[in-house]
């Protein structure tokens, strides 16, 4: 059975088509261009994950896929033996939940799942699938925008270039980018140090560069892995 997996983020939509775990095709599109996008159609089942309500997109996909569509807006209590630590499980971001499900599909260890996107989220999942809680801070791009947009003297100059690394910056842009990256890396290392028996698993759009500095594996498809697991029941 073929399945189309759609992950609606804050600004962009990513998708994959899969069959029995094999990725057949994938792509991405800005949310505002979704109505005119050439979405795959020869699909048996469609699953959409969304971190917000997105009624317009829901209507779009409902009209296109009808009863083939499954909309995933909230975590499912008890699915795959997952035990929530939130008093109200529906308040846990569905993207965090799916990333943990996806990581569990790959690893049997205690897990520290890091999703580096618009926000940087860290979640601890033990071997019994008990969610132990987590951390949320602004992601790399959001933190940079906050500094450039919220302070008068910290602003980017168009002639300043900077390679992403942890070395001290020698321009305002370099200082901000290196400082934000250092902050993100330090947070993950601190949590990992306090949970030494937990396997570090990194995903998300900014996860690749973060994983490089953490000496960690990078797993870009964890949310899709979690969605496929959910579709399989």
TrEMBL record:
ATP binds at residues 7-14, 118. Keywords: ATP-binding, Coenzyme A biosynthesis, Cytoplasm, Kinase, Metal-binding, Nucleotide-binding, Potassium, Transferase. It catalyses: (R)-pantothenate + ATP = (R)-4'-phosphopantothenate + ADP + H(+). A monovalent cation. Ammonium or potassium. GO terms for biological process: coenzyme A biosynthetic process. The active site is at residue 95. One of its GO terms (molecular function) is pantothenate kinase activity. K(+) binds at residue 115. Its cofactor is K(+); NH4(+). Gene3D superfamilies: 3.30.420.40. Substrate binds at residues 86, 93-96, 172. It is found in: Cytoplasm. Its EC number is 2.7.1.33. Pathway: Cofactor biosynthesis; coenzyme A biosynthesis; CoA from (R)-pantothenate: step 1/5. The keyword Metal-binding applies. Catalyzes the phosphorylation of pantothenate (Pan), the first step in CoA biosynthesis. This is Type III pantothenate kinase. It comes from Thalassolituus maritimus. The lineage of its organism: Bacteria, Pseudomonadati, Pseudomonadota, Gammaproteobacteria, Oceanospirillales.
């Amino acid at each position: 059975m073929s399945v189309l997996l759609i992950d609606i983020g804050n600004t962009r939509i990513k998708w994959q088509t899969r069959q029995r775990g094999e990725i057949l095709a994938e792509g991405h599109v800005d949310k505002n261009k979704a109505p005119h996008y050439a979405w795959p159609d020869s699909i048996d089942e469609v699953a959409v994950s969304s971190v917000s309500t997105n009624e317009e997109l829901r209507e779009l996909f409902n009209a296109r896929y009808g009863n083939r569509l499954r909309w995933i807006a909230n975590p499912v209590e008890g699915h795959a033996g997952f035990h929530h630590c939130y008093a109200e499980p529906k308040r846990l971001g569905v993207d965090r939940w799916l990333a943990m499900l996806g990581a569990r599909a790959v690893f049997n260890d205690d897990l520290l799942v890091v999703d580096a996107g618009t926000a940087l989220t860290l979640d601890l999942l033990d071997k019994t699938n008990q969610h132990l809680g987590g951390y949320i801070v602004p992601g790399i791009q959001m933190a940079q925008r906050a500094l450039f947009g919220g302070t008068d003297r910290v602003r980017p100059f168009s002639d300043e270039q900077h390679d992403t690394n942890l070395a001290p910056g020698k321009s305002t842009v370099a200082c901000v980018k290196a400082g934000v990256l250092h902050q993100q890396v330090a947070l993950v290392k601190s949590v990992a140090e306090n949970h030494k028996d937990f396997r570090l698993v990194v995903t998300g759009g900014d996860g690749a560069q973060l994983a490089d500095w953490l000496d960690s594996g990078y797993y870009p498809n964890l949310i899709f892995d979690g969605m496929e697991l959910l579709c399989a029941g």
